Predict the 3D structure of the following.
Amino acid sequence: MIQHYTLHTHTVGFDGRDSAQAMINCARDMGFDTVGISNHFIVNPIIKESKMYPYAVRAGYSNIYSSSFKEVLSRFIPHYHELNTLAELNPDMKILRGMEVDFFDDPKWRDGFEKVIQELKPDYIIGSAHFVTHNGTLLNTHDWKNADKETQDILLKDYWNNIENAAKSGLFSWLAHLDLPKKVGLGREDKWVETESRAIESIAESKTAIEINTSFYRSFCYEPYPSKRILEMVAQNNVPVLISDDAHETKNIGRHFDEAGQLIRDLNLKVADIKTLTR
Ligand SMILES: [Zn+2]
Ligand SMILES: [Zn+2]
């Protein structure tokens, strides 16, 4: 087995489809000895005004969006209690309490975040950027495809800037799905190489790891996040990597780990040590 743990997973009550116990059972059956649950932690005072919010309400996962740290705590305290109980009920498995956090580059956000972390004491924190602030609103990657070309370029620039600052913040165990905008077909042109390479250098300097996220292996584009182009920079800069399935249901657990493992060998990537990823 290329990696004995899976740490990027989502469960029911947030935007996953299966319970934490079901995810643990499935991971055990597949031969993993460690499972981390990392539900979305997205806190911003204007998040409920974003275009994405009413969509999430209709789809039944608006719980992933909080307008205050008080609100996110009201979700994560019972959630972590449940994970503690599951750790006792499943002594053969190591159960970790994680979170996938949207980074917002704002001192007030950071202050609130650090206080909440002291209270929740997560085992690891995944940094991500699903939103970019634009004209006073938050735009989810999904919304970018409808913007004009010029705006898309601004959004992409801001996105990568955000990723760089997330790395420099030193808050995160690793960064998720680096080239997320390719989900809507953006950022693939050669002109982005320089921006990507600057981000990877910042990530290397900050000693943050990155994940090879296998959720993008699709028939039309058979590759993970990030692309091979970025993974080559990751190798050059000696940035440690882990494999994440970003499982939102049991059937996603361990997806494409073999292919990701092959990439690690082919590109001679440095594998992160789980001890340095968790606190
Ligand atoms: Zn994500
Ligand atoms: Zn995720």
